Amino acid sequence: MTAVLRVLCDGGMTVRVLVEPDPITPDQLVAVARHGVGVGLSDDALRAIAASRKVIEDLASDPRAHYGISTGFGALATKHIPREKRAALQRSLIRSHAAGSGAEVETEVVRAMMLLRLSTMATGRTGVRPATAAAYAALLDAGLTPVVHEYGSLGCSGDLAPLAHVALVVTGEGEVRDREGRLRPAAEALPAHGIAPLELAEKEGLALINGTDGMLGMLVLALADLDRLLRTADVAAAMSVEALLGTDAVFAEDLQALRPHPGQAASAANLRLLLADSGVMASHREPNRCTRVQDAYSLRCSPQVHGAARDTVAHAKAVAARELASAIDNPVVTPDGRVVSNGNFHGAPVGYVLDFLAIAVADVAGISERRLDRLCDPARNHGLPPFLADDPGVDSGQMIAQYTAAGVVSELKRLAVPASVDCIPSSAMQEDHVSMGWHAARKLRRALDGLTRVLAVEVLTAARALDLRAPLAAAPATGSVRDAVRAAGVAGPGPDRYLAPEIEAVVGLIRDGSLLPAGLG
Question: Domain boundary residue among 180, 196, 211?
Answer without folding.
Answer: 211
